[in-house]
């Protein structure tokens, strides 16, 4: 009989580990399974998505690159468009949905889309605790992550209707948004949902403009036949709601005009909103 040397023992252990891994975590004995297999299982769980009660449960570990692919775009087109616009390829390969939400930068491209979709966050806490909050609550600071909590999933309603995301940057090529607009149609509720990103610390919802334009869409006929003047007016309505005029001075003197940079930003938002609505209704 040949003596078993150290290297041989290690080789056999490695082979056993490989066999357990290929069988999947369930066949791994709880006492001696390679720790990496359960860890990678957990990670892969939040790097994908699944369906639940008419919603998509998106893992917080989904990268922008993954969300930009065609199969994801078929599911949530506006989020896919935002993911494709989120910085250069290195950032899209590494940056995640959860990181984009929790870092809560005004220029986060996923944020206006999630606000328009009225997504909720599934938050995992210590000792298996779990709670859900609207994404807008976290972005507005109404509710915060508590110590030890992680965003596990993002619950997004599947609306099965056109959506659009458009972004303006201050430079050619990938860059942070100076303004962005997400438009989501909700035919079941005859609603248009719009959120504007980057112009304020959190995405803004111009609710009156949403209701106004939704009332003018022929939901039972050809949605695409919206008068171009209505689209233009919608863009201006959205822009004025998000970048309002300064309040009139209390002493009754002449109103202060908007600064040129704000006028320019308003025009940008108006153009984005008009075009995004046109794309969603096309
Ligand atoms: C050069 C550059 C350009 C960029 N351009 C854009 C752009 O154009 N558009 C855009 O949208 N974004 C842009 N980003 C941001 C990028 O897309 C990522 O969203 C951001 O860098 C966060 O990266 P991350 O997912 O690796 O998170 P991390 O850097 O790993 O984490 C960020 C923070 O979030 C916390 N966190 C992460 N995940 C979770 C979770 N699941 N639960 C709780 N907390 C969590 C971390 O603890 C950390 O505090 C850019 C970033 C860089 C560096």
UniProtKB/TrEMBL annotation:
Cross-referenced Pfam families: FAD_binding_5 (PF00941)
Region entry Disordered, spans: 1-41
InterPro entries: CO_DH_flav_C_dom_sf, Diverse_Substr_Oxidored, FAD-bd_PCMH, FAD-bd_PCMH-like_sf, FAD-bd_PCMH_sub2, Mopterin_DH_FAD-bd
Alphabetic keyword roster: FAD, Flavoprotein, Oxidoreductase
Top-level division of the source organism's lineage: Bacteria
Gene Ontology MF annotations: FAD binding; oxidoreductase activity
UniProt cross-references to PANTHER family, sorted A to Z: XANTHINE DEHYDROGENASE SUBUNIT C-RELATED
SUPFAM superfamilies the UniProt entry points to: CO dehydrogenase flavoprotein C-terminal domain-like, FAD-binding/transporter-associated domain-like
Transmembrane parts of this sequence: none
Descriptive protein name: Putative oxidoreductase
UniProt domain FAD-binding PCMH-type: residue ranges: 1-161
Stretches with biased composition (Basic residues): 9-19
């Amino acid at each position: 009989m040949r003596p078993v040397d150290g290297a041989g023992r290690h080789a056999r252990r490695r082979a056993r580990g490989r066999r357990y891994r290929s069988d999947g975590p369930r066949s791994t004995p709880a006492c001696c399974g390679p720790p990496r297999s359960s860890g990678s299982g957990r990670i892969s769980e939040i790097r994908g998505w699944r369906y639940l009660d008419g919603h998509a449960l998106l893992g917080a570990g989904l990268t922008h690159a993954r969300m930009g692919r065609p199969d994801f775009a078929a599911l949530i087109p506006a989020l896919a468009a935002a993911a494709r616009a989120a910085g250069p390829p290195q950032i899209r390969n590494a940056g995640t949905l959860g990181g984009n939400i929790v870092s809560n930068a005004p220029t986060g491209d996923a944020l206006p889309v999630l606000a328009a979709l009225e997504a909720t966050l599934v938050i995992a806490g210590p000792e298996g605790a779990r709670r859900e909050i609207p994404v807008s609550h976290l972005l507005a600071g109404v509710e915060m992550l508590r110590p030890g909590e992680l965003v596990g999933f993002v619950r997004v309603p599947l609306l099965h209707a056109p959506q659009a995301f458009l972004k303006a940057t201050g430079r050619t090529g990938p860059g942070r948004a100076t303004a962005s607009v997400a438009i989501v149609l909700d035919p079941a509720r005859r609603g248009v949902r719009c959120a504007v990103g980057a112009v304020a610390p959190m995405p803004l919802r111009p609710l009156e403009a949403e209701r106004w334009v939704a009332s003018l869409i022929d939901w039972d006929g050809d949605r695409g036949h919206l008068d171009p003047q209505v689209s233009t007016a919608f863009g201006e309505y959205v822009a004025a709601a998000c970048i309002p005029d300064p309040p009139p001075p209390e002493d009754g003197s002449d109103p202060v005009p908007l600064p040129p940079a704000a006028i320019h930003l308003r025009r940008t938002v108006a153009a984005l909103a008009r075009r995004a609505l046109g794309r969603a209704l096309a």
